[in-house]
Amino acid sequence: MEQVQETPVDPKDHSKPAERKRVKETVVLVTKDARTGKTLQIVEVGPNLVTDAGDRYYAQRGAVEAVTHTFSIGEIVVAQSGLVNSKTRTFGAFKNMNSTYTGRKTFAAGYPKTADSDTDNSGRTIDAVTYKTIFGTTEANYTIRAVGISRSGGATNSDGQLLSYKTLAIAAYVQKTSSITLTVYINHTFLGV
Predict the structure, then answer these.
(1) Which of 116, 126, 139, 173 has its CA 20 to 30 A from that of 76?
(2) How many whole angstroms separate alpha carbon 13 and alpha carbon 11?
(3) Domain count for the chain
(4) What are the pLDDT digits (tens) for 147-170?
């Protein structure tokens, strides 16, 4: 089994600047042989970028206010190309990477949730909100270079479409084929200072 770790993702690592250690975002991608269920690759990368819309969403949830953008019933999206980091990024950047778009799927049942018990999710912790989805053998069969969380059914280029996203380094690319399943976990860990 191949394991790729792009950067340290220990949620208790306080060596980062104060702004970074308040919220730690970790993406875990697990590929398995569809026939045998054997794990082929685990890619663990972080941090991913929470957008301005994502910051606002978490602030509103923390204040128990009505949310402007409903990310809790959203989708995980994977793409063939990377994105330039921008806090104002929208789903349109992901859509434009795939002429016939196949990389957007609703969360697995029971997600998002805290204190994820799924042992394949190496980024889980009691302080994290975990988003998860599974891409089957007929879905997203290409080299995956970016991962994000989008609103369910949001318009292509309007504001407030992405909660977060991560562009993968070359060593962390995931090759998805029709004989492989892909499980994506996106963890947002809240660590007060």
Answers:
(1) 126
(2) 6
(3) 1
(4) 999 888 765 666 678 899 999 999
